[in-house]
């Protein structure tokens, strides 16, 4: 089904772009945490490939694509080298990085959901793995960097919700047999725009009703989550 939506060459190119941008965010966090070049490479690889690797292991697509396509493995290393030498310049283009990150979020949510369904999972499980594909690498990145995952923090703009919306649109299209390149593109675009709007207007998920917590908001660093 996935190859019916995008040609293999287009799918591969989009994957590499998404992997590169996710890797940039991992390498930048490593710089802020004062990691050495090996730590930068590890965070870049984990951020870029962690979600897809988790999905492939769950659905039994082994060996995972991250280990069968050299481009997938090398692209995070390219991002690491770029950040290693040019991280001040990369920091100054953070807005552009965040835009591409939002696009990658939508793309990976949609393709992750579709691939999970191709391997026999139900609609709900496919959507869950689509979400994991989109955000899993960022969660692993934050854990390795000894931070509370941005995904779970109340003082961060919506990140998982746009991915959930994109994945949900895909499974609804599958359910009503209208999934094609156009509806898939609409799902990607919807998740992308929701993420951009969340960053622009600082939309955040609600916290518990009548909470008693005294936790305060921490200043948000300019980083793609």
TrEMBL record:
Domain Glycine transporter: 13-87, 99-173
Topology in the lipid bilayer: Multi-pass membrane protein
Keyword Membrane: yes
Family, per entry: Belongs to the UPF0126 family.
Subcellular location per the Swiss-Prot or TrEMBL entry: Cell membrane
Cellular compartments per GO CC: plasma membrane
Keywords of this entry: Cell membrane, Membrane, Transmembrane, Transmembrane helix
Name by which UniProt lists this protein: UPF0126 membrane protein
Residue intervals passing through the bilayer: 12-31, 38-58, 70-86, 158-178
